Amino acid sequence: MNLLQQGDVVLFQGDSITDCGRDRNYSGSLGNGYPLLIDSLFGMQYPELNVTFLNKGISGNRVVDLNERWQEDCLDLKPDWLSIYIGINDTWRRYDSGDPTSTQAFKDGYRKLIERTKEALDAKLIMVEPFVLPHPEDRRAWREDLDPKITAARELAVEYGALLVPLDGLFAAASVRREAAFWAPDGVHPSPAGHGLIAKAWLETMGVSLG
Fold it and tell me: Mind giving me the DSSP string for the chain?
């Protein structure tokens, strides 16, 4: 059963995977990734529902960055549905910049986002868990840092009754069908097929069948 209703506003929040080259000068720009695919596929299936999709993802963001811009880029927009996809940069900065985010800090920051949203809005929440694939080889070591953050996101989804898109397992399964680099050339940023995988999983989590 499709959970999106007539006139709903859906806001995508996150990092570069959500941002995906959107035009900052155009509020309706969705970029070239999964938000655009979701809008395209949903609009094709349910044109009569007039659902609006917005994208406020910003490349490089971590949980702390979302908190800093949450009022303007989320609460002021008053979405009916909030989709949050964050976490990989909270791991990545440990390895490329020596700037780690502990699992507790990640979970506390994520909880703050959710609490601020629930206090200000009646928005429903869909959480997209981060993933990493073992390509290049050094990405394998990231599991030590990312796995606890994925667990934290899942725990928050249970605690707050959010929907969850379980991307880490879905990308691992997809990498059995075709090598990891096909889905995410650097192990993090999805290919076109990878964005298609995210869009399909997101829509199915929302009860939308693509047939």
Answer: -----TT-EEEEEESHHHHTT--TT-TT--TTSHHHHHHHHHHHH-GGG--EEEE---TT--HHHHHHHHHHHTGGG--SEEEEE--HHHHHHHHHSS----HHHHHHHHHHHHHHHHHH---EEEEE-----S-SGGGGGGHHHHHHHHHHHHHHHHHHT-EEE-HHHHHHHHHHHS-HHHH-TTSSS--HHHHHHHHHHHHHHTT----
Catalytic residue, from 99, 108, 138, 186: name it. Answer: 186
Type of residue at 206: M
pLDDT at 210 over 90: no
186 is catalytic: yes
Domains of the chain, CATH where assigned: 9-206 (3.40.50.1110)
> What is residue 209's predicted lDDT score, i.e. its pLDDT?
84
Per the residue annotation, which of 15, 16, 145, 195 is the catalytic one? 16
Residues 68, 36: Cα–Cα separation, whole Å: 25
Catalytic residue among 59, 65, 80, 189: 189
Cα dihedral value 112, 114, 117, 123, nearest 10: 180
Interval 78-97: pLDDT, tens: 999 999 999 999 999 999 99
**DSSP string computed for 35-65:** HHHHHHHHHHH-GGG--EEEE---TT--HHH
